[in-house]
Amino acid sequence: MVWNIAHRGGAALMPENTLVAFANARRRGCDGIELDVQLSRDGEVVVVHDFRLNPALCRNADGRWIQGPAPLIKDLTLEELQRFDVGRADPSSRYAHAHPLVQWCDGERIPTLSDVIARVGGEGFWLFVELKTTAVEPSVSGSAQALAEATLAVLRRHHYLERSILVGFDWRGLVHALSRAPDVQCWFTTAPGAVNAATLEHIRRAGGTGWFTAYKDLTAAHLERARALGLKVGAWTVNDAADLARLVRLDVLCTDRPDRLARQKVSDPTANNTTAGR
Q: What would the pLDDT profile of 41-63 be if each residue is shown by its tens digit?
């Protein structure tokens, strides 16, 4: 059956990229979680999506949402990052209005990848770890290679490399990870509209085991070619019930609404039985 992977822990239901969200995803019976990692100034692998602190999601010690310009994640130490409360969105923000179902949880802090594994890791629970760097503006995110090295080190230390899949738009990090750990699974992420006839062949040649695509880019021809190349196929970020139903025969669906996908899986017993991992 398709894997139900909770995007940022299920960002439509709980505060994104927090321990409480990841624990909720595990309690719901998700097959795993997707999370974003970056390097702090002191070299810790921290779990956060934006390259800068998000003013809509970060409160200071005095309980006030921060004001811009927000600092870059890479310029703050772990101790500095964990001073901020990320368990609630500013109710006046666009983010809060776009996430009306979230059960906010005051007191959540930016976790490390180690924290996540310690909290929710275990047999049969997968991590889709997005290496969050950018080749377009590398000064905001730091080195893709350094992040890949540090992430591999954390996964090895926790004996979690075999239950993790690395993903990312910045393919430099994935290629570097494969050079250091040839057996690590890397699913190459493609941006919306960025798929052409050569994309899937490039992923396979680079050592990728999967293609992680924007769901609107998934055509029958692309899917057929990916299968012919031996690639697993996952789609992000699929939230609409109709889209979840239409794509339920993929290997992985990454969703902010793992509750909807869980209901869809129950209602569609004919969904394929392929497994996303090796």
A: 999 999 999 999 999 999 999 99
Strands of 191-247 (E only): list them: 210-214, 232-236
Q: Could you list the residue range(s) of the whole structural domain that residue 150 is in?
A: 3-267
CATH of the domain at 99: 3.20.20.190
Q: Which residues pair with 188 in a beta bridge?
A: 168, 211
Q: What is the DSSP letter of 237?
A: -
Query: Is 34 a domain residue?
Result: yes
Can you tell me the distance from the alpha carbon of 246 to that of 219, in angstroms, rounded to the nearest whole number? 12
Q: Is residue 274 part of a domain?
A: no
Cβ burial, residue 207 (10 Å; 0-12/13-18/19+): middle
173-204 pLDDT tens trace: 999 999 999 999 999 999 999 999 899 999 99
Residues identified as active-site? 7, 49
CA 112, chain centre distance (Å): 14
CB contact burial 124-136 (16+ within 10 A = b; e otherwise): ebbbbbbbbbbee
CA distance 8 to 79: 22
pTM of the shown model: 0.96
Helix (H) / strand (E) containing 148 = helix 144-157
